Amino acid sequence: MNMLSVLDYAVNTLKVKHVIVAGHYGCGGVTAALSRKQFGLIDNWLRHIKDVYRIHSHELDAIENQTEKVNRLVELNVEEQVYNLCRTTVVQNAWKERTDLEVHGWVIDLKTGLVKDLNVSHQNAHSLGYVYELNEETVSH
Fold first, then answer.
1. CA distance 48 to 42
2. Stretch 76-101: mean pLDDT, rounded?
3. Cα-based distances in Å from 8 to 1, 19, 62, 136
4. What is the CA radius of gyration of the chain?
5. 3-state class of 50 per DSSP?
6. Stated pTM of the model
7. Which CATH number does the domain housing residue 94 bear?
């Protein structure tokens, strides 16, 4: 709810044009998700990273170098979170009213300061698949 509140304020009140989902190479959360250890309450947050791993396990299991595996999972996690953000009703409804909102996925290399654009930007719901395009019908409860 906290993230959705911030997103709603940014998109609907401030009318931001660009939302950036940013991860960083060498992420401790991604490393922890790959470790198969239990850390406590944070395991509930790490489960989402593990879900991304499950979806892409064939590719990730082929990477032998642990640093490269962590960094690739960082990229895949950012891509998935961009997709998740685009599927929120906040973004979906904003796209119905405006054409200037874009959601981008970047990864920051903390060692060099360079930002890598993952080229997973979305400007409307059409790129997400028709099942995510919300229409004007109301859901009855």
1. 11
2. 95
3. 10, 11, 39, 19
4. 17
5. helix
6. 0.89
7. 3.40.1050.10
